[in-house]
From TrEMBL:
Organism taxonomic ancestry: Bacteria, Bacillati, Actinomycetota, Actinomycetes, Micromonosporales
SUPFAM superfamilies on file: FAD/NAD(P)-binding domain, Succinate dehydrogenase/fumarate reductase flavoprotein C-terminal domain, Succinate dehydrogenase/fumarate reductase flavoprotein, catalytic domain
Name of the protein described by the UniProt record: Fumarate reductase/succinate dehydrogenase flavoprotein subunit
FAD-dependent oxidoreductase 2 FAD-binding domain span: 44-449
Keyword vocabulary terms for this entry: Flavoprotein, Oxidoreductase
InterPro entries: FAD-dep_OxRdtase_2_FAD-bd, FAD/NAD-bd_sf, Fum_R/Succ_DH_flav-like_C_sf, Fum_Rdtase/Succ_DH_flav-like_C, SdhA/FrdA/AprA, Succ_DH/Fum_Rdt_flav_su, Succ_DH/fumarate_Rdtase_cat_sf
Residue stretches making up the Fumarate reductase/succinate dehydrogenase flavoprotein-like C-terminal domain: 511-644
Organism: Micromonospora chalcea
Record-linked NCBIfam families: PRK07573.1, sdhA_Bsu
PANTHER family to which the protein is assigned, alphabetical: SUCCINATE DEHYDROGENASE 2 FLAVOPROTEIN SUBUNIT, SUCCINATE DEHYDROGENASE FLAVOPROTEIN SUBUNIT
């Protein structure tokens, strides 16, 4: 069957050339500026208030722009960034263990399996050192070592200790820093904060993004908000799998609405499976709980050597245990990157050596660390994580090993952006996890927080100013503009259509079934036959959805079923594109593992000759998306077979 057609290739025309060490600084100098008096006349909409959106809104307002901020949560500080636990990377080299901007750049390109842009990644590594200073100045309580310097620890995919952390609450503390900066600007009148508002459409006027259509989730009122530019900082799309580590509210709707209006969607098949999640316990679950990757610093991962060994872990002697990550990857051991650790866990469970009631689990054991460092030291590092695990499972990880298993966590794909973080729609900027730009096929642990704050504090404020200065005075438009009226009408019609179906199945039942299809066929391992089957099943299920879903209530007020229905409708379309993208990419790389493309020892086998490109998909509305390829070139980190052995 014809699933897609190929269009013209694309290029990142904003990317600078020359020595990579000076590209960003030269680019910053060459960009145009908006003088302070003119900034006060310009309005920027920022959708999302996590680390990327909160930091961007605060920084733009500090510069003098009029900012309108929107989030669907009841407070900006409830953004999902608050759930990040383990830490944030930065090339400070406080440990004097050989770290540098270039090493962080190298580790990130290699960790992404050579499917990211060198220029973007080097900029990220450069900016990382400024992020820590910014956050310390805001009062973020990073852990400190005895001498008073900021403490760091190791994370997967690196052999240096570059991860700064605040116990197991790093995301929460960083978000509170950005939130306080945002609240300051709200208090000064520079940011208009609109909580409990969901973006449902993008407004394009004369080919430029000029506004959004939002629904007040409390009153049901639909309004059209106009501006000089729009910034999306709306996170990832992992909830397409239903069960994931994401908060239940996380969705793809803002990005997907922009995609339907012409923004390319890049690399949607790149999904990160996190290796240290609490295993699924039954069909009753609506989400999964992440246990921080930082636990792999001191915890040792193992399973019994014998298949079907049902003994208590403390009854299994050392010589009958398989510390398989340490055995297979001696150089990195338990700190191999997430994609590799996840597939290794799946492999031992597929062999029948998994633990727990379902057999889908491995042990994360702290006995050695407690014996070596003492219980108090482990409590100081991980106490809140251990407490969370015990509350959920009823098991004390100080006494028995944790049980973990891989689960959907982060999405590397997202809306395509150029070096300036601008999408294929002029005036629409996309930052943080909502874009695709920095992580390639696999994200290294502790790099999500780094990218979100780099984009919001340091990159976007420069590139957005250049866009506004280069565009000249934009015509003033309001909600009465024909394009704005048409966008609002589309939203109203979609809501009416969902409410009118009045079928016999709940939204959640469709979402759960879609998630099962995706996990089975587009999860940790994919194959041509499985992906083709998934596409057929997704299309059939989507047709059922529009005939049988039941959305009780109406649109005049709080209606969570209506909210979910709109999001799941978008997940159906995204899921099909994810499978098409995974099917067309006939190679394995990072989080995309095709069973037909692996080395003799089971590692991912890339095909650089055919697939060293970004897959940017254009929406056509006909069911056949158009593939635009952006070739990737590597001048400084030459692609090799990725090895952590």
């Amino acid at each position: 069957m014809d699933l897609y057609r190929e269009g013209d290739p694309i290029a990142d025309t904003r990317a600078p050339d020359g020595p990579i060490e000076t590209r960003w600084e030269r680019h910053r100098f060459e960009m145009k500026l908006v003088n302070p008096a003119n900034r006060r006349k310009m309005t920027v909409i920022v959708v999302g208030t996590g680390l990327a959106g909160g930091s961007a809104a605060a920084t733009l307002a500090e510069q003098g722009y009029q900012v309108r901020s929107y989030c669907y949560q009841d407070s900006p500080r409830r953004a999902h960034s608050i759930a990040a636990q383990g830490g944030i990377n930065a090339a400070k080299n406080y440990r004097n263990d050989g770290d540098s901007v270039h090493r962080l750049f190298y580790d990130t390109v290699k960790g992404g399996d050579f499917r990211s842009r060198e220029s973007n990644v080097h900029r990220l590594a450069e900016v990382s050192v400024n992020i820590i200073d910014q956050c310390v100045a805001q009062g973020v309580p990073f852990a400190r070592e005895y001498g008073g310097l900021l403490d760091t620890r190791s994370f997967g995919g690196a052999q240096v200790q570059r991860t700064f952390y605040a116990r197991g609450q790093t995301g929460q503390q960083l978000l509170l820093g950005a939130y306080q900066a945002l609240e300051r600007q709200i208090g000064l009148g520079n940011v208009e904060m609109n909580a409990r508002h969901e973006m449902l459409e993008l407004v394009i006027v004369d080919g430029r993004a000029r506004g959004i259509v939002v629904r007040d989730m409390v009153t049901g009122e639909i309004s059209t908000e106009m501006a000089d530019a729009v910034v999306l900082a709306t996170g990832g799309y992992g909830n397409v799998f239903y069960l994931s580590t994401n908060a239940k509210g996380c969705n793809v709707t803002a990005s997907w609405r922009a995609h339907r209006k012409g923004a390319y969607f890049a690399n949607p098949c790149y999904t990160q499976i996190h290796p240290t999640c609490i295993p699924v316990s039954g069909d009753h679950q609506s989400k999964l709980t992440l246990m921080s990757e930082s636990l792999r610093n001191d915890g040792r991962v193992w399973v019994p050597k014998a298949k079907g060994d049902q003994r208590s872990p403390r009854e299994i002697p050392e010589d009958e245990r398989d510390y398989y990550l340490e055995r297979i990857y001696p150089s990195f051991g338990n700190l191999v990157p997430r994609d590799i650790a996840s597939r290794a866990a799946k492999n031992v469970c597929d062999e029948g050596r998994g633990v727990g009631p379902t057999g889908l689990g491995v042990y994360l054991d702290f006995a050695d660390a407690i014996n070596r460092l003492g219980r108090k030291a482990i409590e100081a590092k991980y106490g809140n994580l251990f407490e969370m695990y015990e509350r959920i499972t009823g098991e004390d990880p100080y006494e028995v090993p944790m049980r973990i298993y891989p689960a959907v966590h982060y999405t590397m794909g997202g809306l395509w952006v150029d070096y300036d973080l601008q999408s294929s729609i002029p005036g629409l900027f996309v930052i943080g996890e909502a874009n695709f730009s920095d992580h390639g096929a696999n994200r290294l642990g502790a790099s999500a927080l780094m990218q979100g704050l780099a984009d919001g504090y340091f990159v976007l404020p420069n590139t957005l100013a250049n866009y506004l200065a280069s565009s000249g005075p934009l015509d003033k438009v309001d909600a009465s503009h024909p394009e704005a009226v048409a966008a609002r009408t589309d939203v109203e019609d979609r809501i009416k259509r969902l409410l009118a179906i009045n079928g016999d199945r709940t939204v959640d039942s469709f979402h759960r079934e879609l998630g099962q299809i995706m996990w089975e066929h587009c999860g940790m391992e994919r194959s041509e036959a499985g992906l083709r089957k998934a596409i057929d099943e997704i299309r059939a299920l989507r047709e059922q959805f529009w005939q049988r879903v039941r959305v009780p209530g109406d649109g005049e007020g709080l209606n969570q079923s209506l909210e979910k229905a709109g999001r799941v409708a978008d997940f159906f379309e995204l899921a099909e594109l994810m499978c098409i993208d995974a099917l067309h990419r006939e190679e394995s790389c990072g989080g995309h593992f095709r069973a037909e493309h692996q080395t003799p020892d089971g590692e991912a086998q890339r095909d650089d000759d055919r697939f060293a490109y970004v897959a940017a998909w254009e929406y056509t509305g006909t069911g056949e998306p158009v593939l635009h390829k952006e070739d990737l070139t590597f001048e400084y980190v030459h692609p090799t077979q990725r090895s952590y052995k």
